[in-house]
Amino acid sequence: MKESIGGTFTFQLVIIFILIFVSFVTLTINYTRTYAIKNEVLSFIEKNEGLTDKPGGAIELINNYLTYNNYATTGACDEDYYGVNNLTISSYEKVVKGEKYYYCVKKVNNASATHPHRVHYDIVVFFRFNIPVMGDIFSFRATGTTNDIMTPADNLGVEGG
Question: Is the full-model pTM beyond 0.85?
Fold first, then answer.
């Protein structure tokens, strides 16, 4: 009887260790995938010189990329951002408190005397800490900033100017 109780305790410790290890691996994979998505979104905005909504523009490219990569995580953004809450439509809207968005973008004015239209874009994408047996535990935000764009090709509202 004594050995069976000791064996059960050891088995429980092994199961707990495996769950911790699987949780760590899952977190690392989700974290890496989200940062790769964030970097790709930033590059689409930089290549199109803004958050353009024309056919073949940045929003369409971003939405197609996210759809192709099965990105389905949503989250809330600050109210000074513009968000995309439908990946099938190439448009964005001013963030509404309490709404969930796939990603959010804010245009920030970096104008100077020599470059009066210079801006950069701040973006937010989301990732989940998802354990296979337990489901979604936490949701986190991954933020990024584009390089300066001298003459943006969009009409997104500008903060700070």
Answer: no
